[in-house]
TrEMBL record:
The keyword Flavoprotein does not apply. Residues 1-400 form the Major facilitator superfamily (MFS) profile domain. It is a multi-pass membrane protein. InterPro entries: MFS, MFS_dom, MFS_trans_sf, MFS_Transporters. The keyword Nucleotide-binding does not apply. It comes from Paractinoplanes ovalisporus. This is MFS transporter. It is found in: Cell membrane. The lineage of its organism: Bacteria, Bacillati, Actinomycetota, Actinomycetes, Micromonosporales. It holds the Pfam family MFS_1. Keywords: Cell membrane, Membrane, Transmembrane, Transmembrane helix, Transport.
Amino acid sequence: MMERVLPPRGLPRQLVAQSALVAVGWGVYLTGSVVFFTAYAGLTPVQIGLGFSVAGALGLVLPMPLGHFADRVGGRRAWVIGSAVGVVAFLLYPLVGAFWSFVAVLGLQALSQGLTDAGRTVYTAAAVPQEIRVRTMAFVRAYLNLGFTIGAGLGAAAIALDSRPGLLVLVLLNAAGIFVSGCFVARMPAVHTERSAERPRPWGVLRDHPYTALTGVFAILYFSEVLFTTIVPLWAITRTDAPKPVLGALFALNTVLAVLLQVPATRQAVSMAGSARLVRWAALSATAACLVFVVSGRTQGWVTIAVLALGVVLLTGAELWSSAAEWYFVTEVPPPEQRGLYLGAARTTTGISSMIGPAALTFLAVHTGGWGWWLIAALFTVAALTVGPVVAWVARTSRNVHTSAPSA
């Protein structure tokens, strides 16, 4: 029973404890970040939107250089540096009073997130044995979701104070959490990754066409997360008769399923073939979810609520299966000394999806009146059909860090 709720002893449990700790602070912050910038910093909604757009653009250009940096200095060191930058960013939040200072702080935050993301993955891949690596990453994600949930409750309490000190608590608690997390990471065991005498080309990953194609498949699957966070709430409010409080229940359903099922969802992620199967299941689950949401626009009452819940379950399945498969591919496909760089390439591709997804999917699903769901479903079907050949292409391609491009 304990094996279902706790990761293996040793470093995996340390990684999970760190993720839960830092997630509480992030949950506190994310719950009231927009309120902080409007009520405390005095920014307008337009300024906030533009600032986050700039941060999103940084999310496209930073992952690869930061991933390469993590490869060169080591995952743990990059992780600690990212934590230190994050502490500085959040300590500067109370000083934000104009648009450009807001952008500067968000830039530091984006730098911190990029470094910690790359450092965590590079370190975990090097420090955790292959046979439990993906399972450990699943435990980390599950406890991360749990920590976010706890933090969100604390953040709601801080907002309820309806005061400047209450809003200040939001960012200072997160700064404290990141600081403690960085200290925690610094005390984790050091690991050594074998490196070649010749430094690999930092942009050579872009010429690894099979891997690039694979990141394209995952970029399509990332649309399922955009659907859940942005499109489904808009659809439910504008195109169904579901009462607005149902949205909170749907988000809670997703959170509970993610915490309980993330680890079991990794059982197939032990080989190329098994991970490809998970991608296919994720794409087909997302396809089915789109068709279910079409139905929800034509039902009434409790039937609508039940149909929306079914759609959320299917999207959650897509999220869990695709995450498990991605963890396998980003740690097993790249040369060990280029995991950060390859991860950065994948993050850049999904960043493009996060940039174009909200507007494009909103238009297709909501503004077309519903028939656009069929086009979105067709896109996921394409991912399901192409993942097999793409993974086979990846598997038969050698990756030599001494060359500028892999050979098939």
